[in-house]
User: Fold ATP phosphoribosyltransferase from Pedobacter rhizosphaerae.
Amino acid sequence: MIYVVFCTSKLFLKNLFLVHSIFNTLKTLKIAIQKSGRLNEKSVEILKNCGLTFENYKSSLISSVTNFPLEILFLRDDDIPEYVQDGIADLGIVGENVITETKAKVTHLQKLGFGKCTLKIAVQNSSSIEKLEDLNGKAIATSYPVILENFLQSKGIKSDIRTISGSVEIGPGLGLSDAICDIVSTGGTLKSNGLKPFADVMSSEAVLIGNEAIADHPEVAELLQRIRSVLSAKSNKYVVLNVSKDNLQKVVNLLPGVKSPTVVPLFEPNWVAVHSVIAEADFWDKINSLKAAGAEGILVMPIEKIIT
Ligand code: ATP
Ligand code: ZN
Assistant:
């Protein structure tokens, strides 16, 4: 199929995808993910872990999944909410910060547990700003004016928001602003610019979003089920242990399993093997309690998927 489209850059891409979807009479589902950047690798990984097979994602704008009716669009993260809102893509994977900032009307389908970060206000180490009210009348540089404005409004504070698109952290040093509002992960960038974190504005992680009209589409439901089974498997471990029948009840009380633990007799009389699933979050506490309850030879294995 040959497309002839006369326009430029972002608009060009949007029109290209629009023309593509008009000609795509089979109405294959489309998911937009970041082309390159912090969310790209994990977005690709989660789709591959769902059993989807696709290639050439580095070099193309669109890639077809060979074993599921889905096409993947590779875009700048900032454009993803709008593409999903406008129905050019049916689904998207993007940070909550970008969704809030773009004010896109989309359905949040599933938090994905990666791309976690916090948007913070930071001030210079020597700053006289000590409490939130001290930000009244002060200039704050940010790439997230909408989120910052919402936050300040909710606290009844009026500041002068200066929107800049990058390198926000150099603002105070250049005398451009009294404070900044930016994504902070380790704090290293703040430190090297003589800044210190001052207030948390928003926590964010990557989420799967959907166009408001597509959410109950059967293929979306199938994909969502696969994504949830991958996420659930990731946050759990498969455990096999041996225990004497005398201690079995104590051990079983500690192991909920998906339904309940599997208990299998061992060749040695009065001993059984217990198979179960435990949550990653309280893994070490659980293992120590199991040992104290009489569990021996504990094997722990990763789980690929949990389908409930
Ligand atoms: P693009 O070229 O797609 O516009 P970008 O440079 O705007 O990319 P990235 O730096 O790749 O964006 O960040 C993408 C998203 O990753 C952010 O919007 C945020 O949700 C998340 N993220 C997680 N940790 C961080 C971090 N330490 N700094 C910035 N973003 C982070
Ligand atoms: Zn971006």
The radius of gyration is 25 Å. Confidence is low (pLDDT under 50) at residues 1-8. The chain has three domains: 9-114+206-233, 117-204, 236-302.
